[in-house]
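Section 3.1: Structural characterization of target chains.
Under the original work plan, the team committed to producing a structural model for every single-chain target entering the pipeline before any wet-lab resources were allocated. The record below documents one such target. The sequence was received from the expression subgroup and is listed exactly as submitted; it comprises 155 residues.
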Amino acid sequence: MDNVRLHEELNGYFIEELSVGMSAVFAKTITESDIVMFSGVTGDMNPVHVNEDFAKDTIFKGRIAHGMLTASLISTVLGMKLPGPGCIYLSQDLKFLAPVRPGDTVAARAVITDIIPEKKRIVCKTTASVGDKLVCDGTAKMMVRSRVEEESAKG
């Protein structure tokens, strides 16, 4: 397989293919391993995440996942599904509304709320939920590739 074909197969949506209201979701059950690996990768060893004896005496009454681990599932939706591979994350605002615990299944969702074609930008409402409970809410801005520009650059 040549590089051009592989690149095309890996590509997500182009800006011309997107419309307001399009959405995508990624769901994952947060495991003990996820929390331990996230702690190791980031260096965030806050005992509320990694020490049950400490965490049981907090307002959460037990260990919770890192908020940014939950938020990283939003990154998965945007980078792998909508708009998908080839997009560039420009910004994300987040509000953490409730804890996520080991064993919880988190559904991260992105919904396109605005498209700025001349700048090749989209704005998405981003959320993460455990069941019916909203645990994270925010807005993301993404840069998305243009099919028209890429084809005109090829000649």
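The chain has a mean pLDDT of 92.
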